[in-house]
Predict the structure.
Amino acid sequence: MPQPVLLSDIGKVLIDFDFSIAARRLAEHCDHPAETVLTLFDDIKGPYEVGDMDDVEFVRQGMVRTGFRGSPAEFAVIWCEIFAQNEPMHATLGALAGRLPMHLLSNTNELHKGYFLREFAIFQHFQGGVYSHTARCAKPGDEIFLKTAEQLDLDPARTFYIDDLEANIATAARLGFRTFHYSFEKHSQLQAELDEWLAAQGIG
Ligand SMILES: [Mg+2]
């Protein structure tokens, strides 16, 4: 019998990210300006996030496209050092630890996933997750939500789903999940709705 579960997106919910940091650092190692260097990744980010391209190939293509002057390891570090933990969310989830299962659902890639799971304590609160690059499909499509529900044995009606993107929230809501459209400014509203939902689920 599925129990109440918290399911969360990652970027702009658990951790903030700022690709302009990577853009500035890339620009220091190639002949493209920070303002446009990221456009060189436009058509490889998608295939990388759904697992059609592996880490080695992504880094190789990124280095060739930008004319990167450095090693693959240096390129990977610049690609990954764009995140910062959401401290209010870390506190909220810390208070919930052990009271209900918590899982992740993210459009991401292997380099970023490895980096943020290793770097940030907020991920200690989670028991598992589904990621686009290994699920081979991405939000906001239905498929990744259906796979997540099946793999994690979720009842959408008893699953509180948090995401910052309207399109992802729309899919989740249509599939019957209890949703919250998050932004850092709305954290206290999330806390209030989560407390109310937990009480309704019998989790005091
Ligand atoms: Mg997000």
The first helix runs from residue 19 to 27. The beta strands are 5-8, 15-17, 83-85, 102-106, 128-131, 159-163, 178-181.
